[in-house]
Design a protein that fits this description.
Ubiquitin Conjugating Enzyme; repeat; 3-stranded mixed beta sheet; 16 strands; zinc ion binding; Herpes Virus-1; N-terminal domain of TfIIb; metal-binding; zinc-finger; EC 2.3.2.31; 3 domains; alpha+beta; about 350 residues
C-alpha cells in the first residue's frame, strides 16, 4: 500500500466519522473499512403496501401503511490496498424493502460513480446518492408495493453475476437479455413479508421518536420551550406538553379517581392518553390505582357483570343469563345476582317475592 493511498483512506474515514453519528457510520476495528446505514428522505405521507396474494400471514386482501421512515440501506465496505489510486472499495449493499434486482441496480450505479471518480475517494458520493437519489433512480413512488424473493434471503432466482459482467459483455449476459441481472453484492435480508412489515413499522416509530426527541417544543401548560426528549405528545391530536406538567396533571386526576379524564389538556381536544403513556409518567403505586379504577369503570358499563357482595372481595363475576346464581372465582361465594344475598336455591328471591 502506497503512503498516498493509506493517507487518503485514513482521511476519508476520519472525515466520515466526524460528519455522521455512530448509528449512521461505524468504522471497523479490525480492517480499513466499516458500515454505513443510509436513511432515505421520503416524501410526505409515503405509503407502503402489501398485496394480499403475496402476504403470507396478513389478513386483509391489501394492506397499506403510511410511514415517514423506512429501514436503512446498509453499505458494508472494505478498502483494498490500492484504493483510491486504482481499485474501488469492496462492498455489499443490504436492504429489507428493496428487491435484490433493485439493490443490484444500485450496486451497478455505485460502480459507475467510481468509474467517474476513479483515483478519488468515493464513499461520501456513494452515501449521498443512496440517501438522496435512490427513490428517483429506481422510479419508486407512493404507494410502493413491497416484494421479496422466495426464500427470504434475496439470493434465489437467476444466478448472481460478477460485478463487472456488464462492462465485459459476457456472452451469458447477452443470452439472458431481458432477464433481471442479480449482483452477488446485493442482499435483501428479510425472512418474510409479514416480518418485513413489522420491521418497517418498528423502524418508522423509532426514527419518529428520534426526530421528536431532538426538536424543541412549546409546552402550552408552563409556556416553556423544551426538547422533545423532555416532552410527550398525544397520539390522536399530536399536541405536545412537557413531561413534568403532564405528570402533575395525571397524578391529580388519578388521585381524584378521574381515570377517564386523562385527556389532552387542550379544552377543545378529546384525545386520551394511552395506558403506556400514563405508566411512563406516574409512579408504580399511582399507576396500579389508575389501572384498577380504569378496569372497574369499564366493568361498570357492562350489564352482564356483577360484583361479589362480600365486602372484602368485590371480585367481578359474569352473570349467567339463564340463572340468578353467581359464583365468585376468587372466594367461591355463591350468591343471588339479583338480591346479592347468599344463593337461596329454588326459594323465591326476597326482592321479587310478594
Amino acid at each position: 500500500m502506497s503512503s498516498e493511498d493509506r493517507e487518503a483512506q485514513e482521511d476519508e474515514l476520519l472525515a466520515l466519522a466526524s460528519i455522521y453519528d455512530e448509528d449512521v457510520f461505524k468504522r471497523s476495528e479490525s480492517a480499513q473499512g466499516g458500515e454505513t446505514r443510509i436513511f432515505l428522505e421520503l416524501p410526505q405521507d409515503f405509503i407502503v403496501s402489501v398485496n394480499g396474494n403475496s402476504a403470507e400471514t396478513l389478513q386483509s386482501p391489501r394492506s397499506e401503511y403510511t410511514v415517514s421512515f423506512l429501514p436503512p440501506l446498509v453499505l458494508n465496505f472494505e478498502f483494498p490496498p490500492d484504493y483510491p489510486s486504482t481499485s474501488p472499495p469492496v462492498f455489499t449493499l443490504r436492504g429489507k424493502w428493496l428487491s435484490q434486482a433493485q439493490l443490484s441496480t444500485l450496486c451497478r450505479h455505485l460502480d459507475n460513480i467510481w468509474e467517474e471518480n476513479r483515483g478519488s475517494v468515493v464513499l461520501f458520493a456513494w452515501m449521498q446518492f443512496l440517501k438522496e437519489e435512490t427513490l428517483s433512480y429506481l422510479q419508486i413512488s407512493s404507494p410502493y408495493e413491497l416484494k421479496m424473493c422466495h426464500g427470504g434471503s434475496g439470493q434465489s432466482g437467476p444466478p448472481p453475476v460478477p460485478p463487472d459482467a456488464e462492462q465485459r459483455g459476457d456472452a451469458a449476459c447477452a443470452a439472458a437479455a431481458g432477464a433481471e441481472i442479480l449482483d452477488a453484492r446485493a442482499v435483501q435480508d428479510v425472512e418474510s413479508l409479514s416480518s418485513l412489515i413489522r420491521e418497517i413499522l418498528d423502524s418508522d416509530q423509532a426514527q419518529r421518536r428520534k426526530c421528536f426527541d431532538s426538536k424543541m417544543f412549546l409546552c402550552n401548560i408552563c409556556f416553556c420551550e423544551k426538547l422533545g426528549s423532555e416532552c410527550m405528545y398525544f397520539m390522536e391530536c399530536s399536541h405536545v406538553y412537557c413531561r413534568a406538567c403532564l405528570k402533575d396533571y395525571f397524578e391529580i386526576q388519578i388521585r381524584d379517581g378521574q381515570v377517564q379524564c386523562l385527556n389532552c389538556p387542550d379544552s377543545e381536544c378529546s384525545s386520551v392518553a394511552t395506558p403506556g403513556q400514563v405508566k411512563e409518567l406516574v409512579g408504580e403505586q399511582l399507576f396500579a390505582r389508575y389501572d384498577r379504577l380504569l378496569l372497574q369503570s369499564t366493568l361498570d358499563t357492562m350489564a352482564d357483570v356483577v360484583y361479589c357482595p362480600r365486602r372484602g372481595c368485590q371480585t367481578p363475576v359474569m352473570k349467567d343469563p339463564e340463572s340468578i346464581i353467581g359464583i365468585c372465582s376468587c372466594c367461591n361465594y355463591a350468591f343471588c345476582t339479583f338480591c346479592r344475598m347468599t344463593y337461596h336455591g329454588v326459594s323465591p328471591c326476597r326482592l321479587t317475592a310478594g
